[in-house]
Amino acid sequence: RLLQSAEAPKSKEVCWNWRQEQLPILKAIKNRRLEGSYNGYPVLPGYWGSYCLDGLAMALWGLYHSNSFEEAIIRVVNFLGDADSTGAVVGQMAGALYGYRGIKAGPPDRKVKYQARPDAGSISDMDKAP
């Protein structure tokens, strides 16, 4: 119901509208970090995406705003947090959407040091979120 209606469960939460260019979930993540809890359960300050609706919204966002299997994965894992889980979720959906032939075979062409990409998801603006 929440994903279909995009209704926030509480006033402190924002809608998980994964169709928007900027994922508004960052504001909710910031609120949880500042309060130290989510629905009464403690949260770790630098760890997000493990809550199922957050992880699903992040994966749907990455898939919706991508043109390839690789791009979907890069967008989602660059949110950091529970990147292995959110990457696995978007990987399954992207594999179904783009198919076997859409997955680039072999290891990456080269290894690069992590750096934020403008076309990828990012939490760098989290502290600036209203």
UniProtKB/TrEMBL annotation:
<dbReference type="GO" id="GO:0046872">
    <property type="term" value="F:metal ion binding"/>
</dbReference>
<dbReference type="InterPro" id="IPR005502">
    <property type="entry name" value="Ribosyl_crysJ1"/>
</dbReference>
<keyword id="KW-0479">Metal-binding</keyword>
<dbReference type="Pfam" id="PF03747">
    <property type="entry name" value="ADP_ribosyl_GH"/>
</dbReference>
<feature type="region of interest" description="Disordered">
    <location>
        <begin position="105"/>
        <end position="130"/>
    </location>
</feature>
<feature type="binding site">
    <location>
        <position position="85"/>
    </location>
    <ligand>
        <name>Mg(2+)</name>
    </ligand>
</feature>
<protein>
    <recommendedName>
        <fullName>ADP-ribosylglycohydrolase family protein</fullName>
    </recommendedName>
</protein>
<feature type="binding site">
    <location>
        <position position="84"/>
    </location>
    <ligand>
        <name>Mg(2+)</name>
    </ligand>
</feature>
<feature type="binding site">
    <location>
        <position position="82"/>
    </location>
    <ligand>
        <name>Mg(2+)</name>
    </ligand>
</feature>
<keyword id="KW-0460">Magnesium</keyword>
<dbReference type="InterPro" id="IPR036705">
    <property type="entry name" value="Ribosyl_crysJ1_sf"/>
</dbReference>
